[in-house]
Design a protein that fits this description.
This protein has 180 residues and is mostly beta strands. It is built from one helix and 14 strands. The protein has one domain. A hairpin with a 5-residue loop joins strand 11 and strand 12. It is globular.
């Protein structure tokens, strides 16, 4: 699975916080929209209309819309996850009861809003080189399979600003993400 290094350059205006992720995922996973962000009544959820939402237990914002990782190269990606989505720590402790541990891991829980980056510069690994090979400087980046970024494909998502540090999936490279 892709992984982001802490080196990132982006504006908060290019981050979408309207969707949740079902299951677990690593930061850097390329995602697409799975479920609409509006509720079953056709109204977006907000603090003002939560009293009319069924099964509401708190006044916290609960995203109804979901994203899921891209599965094939023809998927329309909306961005990459900026945080890991995890449920348990390395010792099997449920992080729902440990918000400080969750924050220390820079992660969110499944079903919580996850930040999705649409535009910026990131340092990422696990490039899908199965078709187009490893990226070269200035090469186009495309939607790959299983949430990965590829060097060839149908839907362009950005430009590689460097080569990978080593010609393996563990090698990192700079990516200028620009999803329209």
């Amino acid at each position: 699975m892709p992984n982001l290094k802490p080196f990132r350059d982006f504006s908060q205006h290019d981050v979408i916080n309207l969707f949740a992720y079902d299951g677990t995922a690593t930061a850097g996973t390329l995602v697409k929209i799975d479920t609409n962000w509006k509720d079953v009544y056709g109204e977006s959820l907000s603090l003002s209309n939560l009293s009319s939402a069924p099964n509401t237990m708190s006044s916290s914002f609960v995203p109804v819309g979901k994203v899921t990782r891209t599965t094939v190269s023809t998927d329309l990606a909306i961005g990459i996850l900026l945080k890991n989505v995890i449920e348990y720590d390395e010792n099997g402790t449920p992080l729902i009861w440990e918000p400080q541990l969750l924050a220390e891991r820079d992660a969110v829980l499944p079903q919580q809003a996850v930040p999705v980056l649409t535009k910026g510069i990131v340092l990422i690994n696990d490039i899908d080189a199965s078709v187009g090979g490893y990226p070269t400087i200035g090469a186009a980046a495309y939607v790959g399979t299983n949430g990965r970024i590829a060097t060839s494909g149908t839907n362009r998502i950005g430009t590689f600003l460097s080569q990978v540090t080593e010609n393996t999936n563990n090698g990192y490279c700079l990516l200028r993400l620009n999803i329209q």
